[in-house]
Specification:
Elements lengths: L5 H9 L10 H6 L17 H20 L9 E5 L3 E5 L13 E5 L12 H10 L4 E5 L2 H7 L4 E2 L4 H6 L3 E4 L8 H10 L5 E4 L3 E6 L4 H29 L2
Parallel strand pairs: 6-7
Antiparallel strand pairs: 1-2, 1-4, 2-3, 4-8, 5-6, 7-8
Helix pairs in contact: 3-8, 4-7, 5-8
Length: about 240
Amino acid sequence: MPQPGWAGLGASFAGRVPWLPPRPFSRVLAEAGHYPLTLLAPGVRHNGTMLARLYGVFRQVGEDLFHHRLISATAGNFSVRTKEGFLITKSGVQKGRLTPEDLVEVPLEGPFPPGASVESVIHREVYLRTPARAIVHAHPRVAVALSLHLDSLVPLDLEGQYYLKEVPVLAPKTVSATLEAALAVAEALKDRRACLLRGHGAFAIGLKEKPEEALLEAYSLLTTLEESAEILFYHRLWGKG
Protein backbone atom coordinates (compact mmCIF):
# COMPACT_ATOMS: atom_id res chain seq x y z
CA MET A 1 0.00 0.00 0.00
CA PRO A 2 1.61 3.34 -1.01
CA GLN A 3 2.33 5.73 1.84
CA PRO A 4 0.49 9.10 1.90
CA GLY A 5 2.32 11.73 -0.12
CA TRP A 6 3.39 12.06 -3.70
CA ALA A 7 5.44 8.85 -3.52
CA GLY A 8 2.17 6.99 -3.92
CA LEU A 9 0.34 9.43 -6.13
CA GLY A 10 3.25 10.23 -8.41
CA ALA A 11 3.90 6.61 -9.24
CA SER A 12 0.54 6.33 -10.93
CA PHE A 13 1.23 9.45 -13.02
CA ALA A 14 4.94 9.38 -13.75
CA GLY A 15 5.98 5.80 -13.12
CA ARG A 16 8.57 6.83 -10.55
CA VAL A 17 8.95 8.62 -7.24
CA PRO A 18 10.21 12.15 -8.01
CA TRP A 19 12.92 13.70 -5.84
CA LEU A 20 14.47 17.03 -6.78
CA PRO A 21 15.37 19.58 -4.06
CA PRO A 22 14.67 22.21 -2.96
CA ARG A 23 11.05 21.64 -1.98
CA PRO A 24 9.64 20.40 -5.24
CA PHE A 25 5.98 19.47 -5.21
CA SER A 26 6.89 15.81 -4.73
CA ARG A 27 8.85 16.60 -1.59
CA VAL A 28 6.33 19.07 -0.19
CA LEU A 29 3.63 16.43 -0.37
CA ALA A 30 5.71 13.64 1.10
CA GLU A 31 7.32 15.51 3.99
CA ALA A 32 6.67 14.19 7.49
CA GLY A 33 4.70 11.26 6.10
CA HIS A 34 1.45 13.18 5.67
CA TYR A 35 -0.15 15.71 3.40
CA PRO A 36 1.22 19.12 4.36
CA LEU A 37 -1.16 21.79 5.55
CA THR A 38 0.68 24.54 3.70
CA LEU A 39 -0.52 23.70 0.22
CA LEU A 40 -3.98 25.16 0.29
CA ALA A 41 -5.63 28.18 1.82
CA PRO A 42 -6.49 28.12 5.53
CA GLY A 43 -9.65 26.18 6.22
CA VAL A 44 -9.58 24.30 2.93
CA ARG A 45 -9.58 20.56 3.57
CA HIS A 46 -7.54 18.42 1.27
CA ASN A 47 -6.65 14.79 0.81
CA GLY A 48 -4.86 12.49 -1.58
CA THR A 49 -7.62 12.73 -4.14
CA MET A 50 -7.51 16.52 -4.09
CA LEU A 51 -3.73 16.59 -4.45
CA ALA A 52 -3.88 14.17 -7.36
CA ARG A 53 -6.54 16.36 -8.95
CA LEU A 54 -4.39 19.46 -8.48
CA TYR A 55 -1.44 17.86 -10.24
CA GLY A 56 -3.81 16.61 -12.92
CA VAL A 57 -5.01 20.14 -13.57
CA PHE A 58 -1.44 21.46 -13.75
CA ARG A 59 -0.69 18.78 -16.32
CA GLN A 60 -3.91 19.45 -18.24
CA VAL A 61 -3.26 23.21 -18.41
CA GLY A 62 0.29 22.63 -19.62
CA GLU A 63 -0.87 20.25 -22.34
CA ASP A 64 -3.67 22.56 -23.46
CA LEU A 65 -1.48 25.66 -23.56
CA PHE A 66 1.03 23.87 -25.77
CA HIS A 67 -1.41 22.08 -28.07
CA HIS A 68 -3.45 25.25 -28.60
CA ARG A 69 -0.22 27.07 -29.53
CA LEU A 70 -0.44 29.51 -26.67
CA ILE A 71 3.15 28.69 -25.70
CA SER A 72 6.18 27.03 -27.22
CA ALA A 73 7.49 23.83 -25.62
CA THR A 74 9.25 25.26 -22.55
CA ALA A 75 7.69 28.74 -22.44
CA GLY A 76 5.04 30.10 -20.11
CA ASN A 77 4.42 29.38 -16.45
CA PHE A 78 1.45 28.95 -14.13
CA SER A 79 0.88 28.73 -10.42
CA VAL A 80 -1.61 28.37 -7.58
CA ARG A 81 -1.64 30.15 -4.23
CA THR A 82 -0.73 28.17 -1.12
CA LYS A 83 -0.93 29.05 2.53
CA GLU A 84 2.71 30.14 2.70
CA GLY A 85 3.47 30.98 -0.92
CA PHE A 86 2.62 29.54 -4.30
CA LEU A 87 3.21 26.40 -6.31
CA ILE A 88 4.67 27.14 -9.74
CA THR A 89 6.09 25.36 -12.76
CA LYS A 90 9.86 25.18 -12.95
CA SER A 91 11.89 27.10 -15.48
CA GLY A 92 12.68 25.37 -18.76
CA VAL A 93 10.50 22.29 -18.30
CA GLN A 94 8.29 20.87 -21.04
CA LYS A 95 4.89 22.33 -20.19
CA GLY A 96 3.07 19.81 -22.37
CA ARG A 97 4.66 16.92 -20.45
CA LEU A 98 4.68 18.00 -16.82
CA THR A 99 5.61 15.59 -14.05
CA PRO A 100 5.17 16.25 -10.31
CA GLU A 101 8.87 17.12 -10.00
CA ASP A 102 8.37 19.99 -12.47
CA LEU A 103 6.52 21.97 -9.77
CA VAL A 104 8.13 23.83 -6.89
CA GLU A 105 6.78 25.84 -3.96
CA VAL A 106 7.97 29.45 -3.70
CA PRO A 107 7.63 31.53 -0.50
CA LEU A 108 6.03 34.97 -0.51
CA GLU A 109 9.25 36.54 0.73
CA GLY A 110 12.93 35.76 0.70
CA PRO A 111 15.08 34.09 -1.96
CA PHE A 112 13.55 32.23 -4.86
CA PRO A 113 14.37 28.52 -4.78
CA PRO A 114 16.64 27.21 -7.54
CA GLY A 115 14.71 25.96 -10.52
CA ALA A 116 11.63 28.11 -9.98
CA SER A 117 10.28 29.90 -13.03
CA VAL A 118 12.13 33.10 -13.88
CA GLU A 119 8.75 34.83 -13.76
CA SER A 120 8.26 33.88 -10.10
CA VAL A 121 8.95 37.52 -9.23
CA ILE A 122 5.82 38.53 -11.15
CA HIS A 123 3.68 35.77 -9.63
CA ARG A 124 4.83 36.77 -6.14
CA GLU A 125 3.88 40.42 -6.56
CA VAL A 126 0.49 39.51 -8.02
CA TYR A 127 -0.29 37.25 -5.06
CA LEU A 128 0.89 39.89 -2.60
CA ARG A 129 -1.15 42.71 -4.14
CA THR A 130 -4.31 41.05 -5.52
CA PRO A 131 -6.82 38.38 -4.45
CA ALA A 132 -5.56 36.01 -7.17
CA ARG A 133 -5.68 32.31 -6.31
CA ALA A 134 -4.01 31.18 -9.54
CA ILE A 135 -2.02 32.74 -12.40
CA VAL A 136 -1.40 31.61 -15.96
CA HIS A 137 1.26 33.29 -18.08
CA ALA A 138 1.49 32.40 -21.77
CA HIS A 139 2.44 33.86 -25.13
CA PRO A 140 -0.80 33.98 -27.15
CA ARG A 141 0.43 34.83 -30.63
CA VAL A 142 -2.27 37.10 -31.98
CA ALA A 143 -2.65 38.96 -28.69
CA VAL A 144 1.11 39.52 -28.49
CA ALA A 145 1.20 40.72 -32.10
CA LEU A 146 -1.58 43.22 -31.39
CA SER A 147 0.20 44.37 -28.23
CA LEU A 148 2.92 45.80 -30.46
CA HIS A 149 0.39 48.24 -31.95
CA LEU A 150 -2.22 48.85 -29.22
CA ASP A 151 -2.27 50.44 -25.80
CA SER A 152 -5.18 48.26 -24.78
CA LEU A 153 -7.10 45.39 -26.33
CA VAL A 154 -10.84 46.00 -26.32
CA PRO A 155 -12.77 42.87 -27.35
CA LEU A 156 -15.43 43.14 -30.04
CA ASP A 157 -16.95 39.73 -29.33
CA LEU A 158 -19.61 39.08 -26.71
CA GLU A 159 -17.59 36.64 -24.58
CA GLY A 160 -14.55 38.90 -24.51
CA GLN A 161 -16.65 41.91 -23.60
CA TYR A 162 -18.34 39.98 -20.79
CA TYR A 163 -15.26 38.40 -19.21
CA LEU A 164 -12.47 40.83 -20.06
CA LYS A 165 -14.01 44.19 -21.02
CA GLU A 166 -10.60 45.75 -21.68
CA VAL A 167 -7.11 44.28 -21.46
CA PRO A 168 -4.35 46.81 -20.82
CA VAL A 169 -1.07 46.60 -22.70
CA LEU A 170 1.80 47.33 -20.32
CA ALA A 171 5.09 48.72 -21.52
CA PRO A 172 7.61 48.95 -18.68
CA LYS A 173 11.24 49.29 -19.70
CA THR A 174 11.75 45.62 -18.85
CA VAL A 175 8.98 43.15 -19.62
CA SER A 176 10.25 39.87 -18.18
CA ALA A 177 11.50 38.54 -14.84
CA THR A 178 12.08 41.92 -13.18
CA LEU A 179 10.51 43.71 -10.24
CA GLU A 180 9.61 46.55 -12.60
CA ALA A 181 7.55 44.21 -14.77
CA ALA A 182 6.13 42.52 -11.66
CA LEU A 183 4.85 45.78 -10.18
CA ALA A 184 3.27 46.80 -13.49
CA VAL A 185 1.44 43.49 -13.84
CA ALA A 186 0.31 43.42 -10.20
CA GLU A 187 -1.05 46.94 -10.45
CA ALA A 188 -2.95 46.15 -13.64
CA LEU A 189 -4.49 43.00 -12.16
CA LYS A 190 -5.85 44.73 -9.08
CA ASP A 191 -9.06 45.50 -10.96
CA ARG A 192 -8.73 43.39 -14.12
CA ARG A 193 -8.53 39.69 -14.86
CA ALA A 194 -5.87 39.81 -17.58
CA CYS A 195 -3.16 42.03 -18.99
CA LEU A 196 -0.52 42.00 -21.72
CA LEU A 197 3.17 42.86 -21.53
CA ARG A 198 4.03 44.45 -24.86
CA GLY A 199 5.81 42.04 -27.17
CA HIS A 200 6.08 39.40 -24.45
CA GLY A 201 2.89 37.72 -23.30
CA ALA A 202 -0.25 37.71 -21.20
CA PHE A 203 -1.08 37.12 -17.54
CA ALA A 204 -4.53 35.99 -16.39
CA ILE A 205 -5.71 35.28 -12.85
CA GLY A 206 -8.28 32.97 -11.30
CA LEU A 207 -10.17 33.92 -8.16
CA LYS A 208 -12.00 30.72 -7.23
CA GLU A 209 -11.24 29.29 -3.79
CA LYS A 210 -10.22 25.77 -4.83
CA PRO A 211 -6.76 25.89 -6.42
CA GLU A 212 -7.56 23.52 -9.26
CA GLU A 213 -10.68 25.51 -10.16
CA ALA A 214 -8.81 28.82 -9.94
CA LEU A 215 -6.10 27.50 -12.27
CA LEU A 216 -8.66 26.38 -14.84
CA GLU A 217 -10.40 29.74 -14.53
CA ALA A 218 -7.18 31.63 -15.27
CA TYR A 219 -6.47 29.34 -18.23
CA SER A 220 -9.99 29.86 -19.55
CA LEU A 221 -9.60 33.64 -19.40
CA LEU A 222 -6.36 33.44 -21.30
CA THR A 223 -8.03 31.47 -24.10
CA THR A 224 -10.81 34.05 -24.15
CA LEU A 225 -8.19 36.76 -24.56
CA GLU A 226 -6.60 35.03 -27.54
CA GLU A 227 -9.98 34.40 -29.17
CA SER A 228 -10.90 38.06 -28.74
CA ALA A 229 -7.54 39.08 -30.20
CA GLU A 230 -8.10 36.89 -33.26
CA ILE A 231 -11.58 38.31 -33.82
CA LEU A 232 -10.25 41.86 -33.50
CA PHE A 233 -7.44 41.08 -35.94
CA TYR A 234 -9.78 39.54 -38.53
CA HIS A 235 -12.19 42.47 -38.16
CA ARG A 236 -9.44 44.98 -38.87
CA LEU A 237 -8.08 42.87 -41.69
CA TRP A 238 -11.53 42.69 -43.30
CA GLY A 239 -11.99 46.42 -42.94
CA LYS A 240 -8.85 47.00 -44.96
CA GLY A 241 -9.78 44.50 -47.69
